[in-house]
């Protein structure tokens, strides 16, 4: 293991009374360093700094502690000026709503920004969708499926704000909602029921993770 990183691991262990970075985690660190080593076996300062930062920031989660003193554990070289200027680190503020002449189209503050941007681009909003079209769009967005009979019967009322909200809540409460939106997370994690390729053997113990993600989406 890189000497600097070994020293860092020792610091991390001291911060959490030895409850993290056990033998398995040390092995993971060694594998990381080996994977990203240069031809001469050295690790670039940037990669080493990032790995130290990842481990350090995970300390509160690993020890289930509200706060962990990370002072001295995160190297200054891990964060560049571009990193620090990323929008996700900026302080929250409420911008002033743009002044617009057409006050009938926007239904909320966000729509005022949309309308202002459209006007700046020389564009106009399209006409509002009809209730059946809106129902169809919502069903494909929420469930990935066309409306069923009960949803079509609800369609004429979707144009009303209160009924629109009720339709959204009803769609989110449907089990298919979790199945639809779990797919995105499962794709990111490269989930599959089988191995694929020529033999395509079934992964017998994979489905509990699929079912858990679906359950989490439906119960969040």
How are the SSEs placed, and which strands pair?
Blueprint: H1 3-15, H2 23-35, H3 45-57, H4 59-62, H5 81-84, H6 109-120, H7 131-143, H8 149-154, H9 161-173, H10 175-188, H11 207-219
Summarize this entry quickly:
By secondary structure, the protein is mostly helical. It is 54% helix and 0% strand.
Overall 3D shape: flat
Overall mean pLDDT score?
A: 75
How large is the share of residues in beta strands?
under 5%
Largest sheet: none
Q: Strand pairing plus helix content: what structural class? A: mainly alpha
Overall number of strands:
0
Contiguous runs where pLDDT drops below 50 for at least 5 residues? 16-24, 63-67
Report how far apart the termini are.
Answer: 41 Å
Q: Can you tell me the number of structural domains?
A: 2
Order of helices and strands: HHHHHHHHHHH
- Over the alpha carbons, how many angstroms does the gyration radius reach? 26 Å
| Total helical elements | 11
Q: Helical residue percent? A: 40-55%
């Amino acid at each position: 293991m890189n000497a600097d990183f070994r020293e860092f691991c020792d610091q991390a262990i001291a911060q959490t009374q030895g409850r993290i970075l056990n033998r398995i985690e040390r092995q993971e660190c060694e594998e990381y360093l080996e994977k990203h080593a240069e031809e001469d076996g050295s690790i670039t300062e940037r990669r080493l700094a990032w790995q130290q930062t990842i481990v350090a920031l995970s300390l509160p989660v690993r020890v289930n502690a509200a706060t962990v003193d990370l002072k001295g554990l995160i190297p200054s070289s891990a964060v560049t000026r571009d990193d620090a200027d990323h929008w996700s680190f900026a302080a929250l503020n409420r911008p002033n709503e743009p002044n617009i002449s057409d006050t009938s189209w926007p239904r909320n503050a966000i729509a005022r920004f949309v309308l202002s941007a459209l006007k700046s681009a020389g564009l106009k909003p399209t006409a509002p969708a009809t209730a059946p079209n809106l129902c169809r769009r919502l069903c494909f967005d929420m469930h990935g499926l066309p409306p069923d009979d009960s949803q079509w019967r609800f369609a004429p009322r979707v144009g009303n704000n209160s009924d629109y909200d009720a339709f959204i809540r009803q769609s989110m409460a449907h089990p298919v909602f979790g199945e639809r939106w779990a797919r995105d997370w499962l794709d990111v994690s490269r989930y599959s029921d089988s191995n694929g390729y020529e033999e395509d053997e079934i992964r017998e113990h994979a489905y509990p993770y699929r079912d858990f993600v679906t359950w989490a989406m439906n119960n969040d």
